[in-house]
Amino acid sequence: MTLTQTVGIAIIAYNRPDCLDKCLNSLWNSLNDESPRVDSIALFDDGSPYELTSLRQKYSGLHVFQSDRNHGVVFNKNRALYYFTEICPVDVVILLEDDVLLSGDWLDPWLKAVRLHRHMNYSPGYFRIPSYEKYWLKPDSAGTPQDPYVYKVVTGQCTALSTDLIRSQAGYINPAFKGYGHGHVEWACRLIQHGHGGYWKRGVERGFFAIPSGVEIQQAMSNKDQTQINLNKVVMDNLMEEAQLPYVGFPWKNDDERELFLSVFQSN
Q1: pTM
Q2: Fewer Cβ atoms within 10 A, N terminus or C terminus of the chain?
Q3: Which domains, and CATH codes, for the chain?
C-alpha cells in the first residue's frame, strides 16, 4: 500500500439523532489542513424515523444514504463496505458507529495501522479495566499502530481496513446474520484467519489487534435485540465448525436481497 492511499469514512447510524450529531460534529472538528486527506464521508442510516436534511445542510460534503426501514447493523455495515469498495472505491475504509466521538489527531494512527496490518479494530476504554485482563494476550503492549493491544475478544465501534481484502480474501460480513449480533465477530475472524489485524489458527488461541487512538464511546441507548443475538449465535456456531471460514463475495443471499440492498443507492 502506498502512502497516498484514498480514504473513505462511513458512519453507521440508527435512531440515535443526538449521538449522531455529536459524532459528526467531532469528526468535522477533527479534520483540518494538517490531517490526512479524506476522499469521501458517507452516512448510512438504517431506517431511522426522521429526516436527515438538516445534517446534509450542516455537514457540507456528507453523502447520506437512508433506507426506508430498519434492516439491522449487518445489512447497514455491508452497504457501507459495498459503497466504498464498488460504488465509490477507496483504498482504505473506516467504519464508525454513531455512538463514537473523535478527538485530536485520531485519523493518522488508524491509517498507519492499516498500512502496517491492513485491518485494525478498536480498543475501548472498558477493555483496559481489571475485569477485562482475562482477555488480554499481550499485557505489555503499547496500544499503538506499531505495537497494538491484542485481545481474545473484539468489538465493532470503529474498524479500519484495506478494501482489497473485501475483494480478494475476506469479503463482506456474512448476510446469513440478520439484525444484530455476532456478524462483526465472524467477519473479523475471517480477516485474522488470513493474518490481517491479528492471528488465528484452528486449535490455537486467536488474537485481535486493537488500538484506542482518539476514539471514545458516548453513553447511548443500545439497539441490540437478544432474540436476534441468540439466532445469530446459532449461525456463528455453525460457521465456526467449518475447517476454514468461507470467503463471502456478495453482501446478499439472493436476487430479492440484492434488489433491496441496492435500492438505497438508486434513490440517492
Answers
A1: 0.95
A2: C
A3: 7-266 (3.90.550.10)
